[in-house]
Write a structure and sequence with these properties.
CATH architecture of the largest domain: 3-Layer(aba) Sandwich
Structural class: alpha/beta
CATH class of the largest domain: Alpha Beta
Number of helices: 8
Strand order of the largest sheet: 2-1-3-4-5
Number of domains: 2
Shape: elongated
Largest sheet: 5 strands, parallel
Mean pLDDT: 88
């Protein structure tokens, strides 16, 4: 159970979502119908998570997010938006949003995304990410495979870390672009393919094989290699 602020100028959304979160998830939910009211709540009370509509009167949701995250970077923010272009997502992520849900949406999906954000906040910091003989240490930004050091660029490291945390899941180049390259305005699908190829080359040199598989017509998947 968590304390959640839900801000949206659409009353039907406020009623639907707040009712679901209170009844199904047993959350305590405060509601705001404009950006200024949301800021007033956020400056007065403490919240475990915030759900913000992108477009609201008085103060836009993305600006509310930016101001709030400057003081409370650890609190997850889920943005509700009808905007689904890469540029819009970059703007929201730069403002500090932790996840998006595009309108129209179901209360069930929003609830699931909110639970995931709350779990992530509660999870302890990860010292090491391991898959077979491939190992990453996020704090030091170091990586190795079969005991051999991997010299990775920052984006190669970010990509490998993301894939290791989602073994067996297939991601399209577009999905990787929005989740791994989210803070880069110049990145393209071609950037994803180039980085994947470079990462593959380094993994093959260290392992003699590459667990980063191409799923024809779908994207890329990390197939965990065997351990030592």
């Amino acid at each position: 159970m968590a304390r959640v602020l839900l801000a949206d100028d659409d009353r039907s959304v406020l009623v639907m979502v707040s009712s679901w979160l209170r009844l199904e998830d047993q959350h305590t939910v405060d509601t705001a119908s404009d950006g200024q009211e949301a800021l007033d709540f956020l400056l007065t009370y403490g919240y475990d998570a915030v759900v913000l509509d992108w477009e609201m009167p008085k103060v836009a949701g993305v600006e509310v997010c930016r101001r709030f995250k400057e003081k409370h970077p650890e609190t997850p923010v889920l943005m509700l938006t009808g905007k689904d272009t890469t540029d819009d997502k970059i703007t929201g992520l730069d403002a500090g949003a932790d996840d998006y849900i595009t309108k129209p949406f179901s209360a069930e999906e929003l609830s699931a995304r909110l639970r995931a954000l709350l779990r992530r906040r509660a999870a302890p910091a990860v010292d090491k990410v391991v898959s077979g003989t491939v190992s990453l240490e996020p704090a030091s930004r170091s990586a190795s495979a079969s005991g051999k050091s991997l010299q990775l660029s920052p984006i190669e490291f970010n990509l490998l870390e993301f894939l290791l945390k989602h073994p067996g899941d297939c991601f399209s180049p577009e999905a990787l672009l929005s989740r791994v390259w989210a803070d880069s305005e110049e990145a393209t699908v071609a950037s994803v393919r180039v980085t994947v190829n470079r990462l593959r080359t380094k993994l093959e040199e260290a392992l003699g094989t590459c667990p980063l598989a191409t799923v024809r017509g779908s994207g890329y998947r990390w197939d965990a290699p065997p351990g030592k």
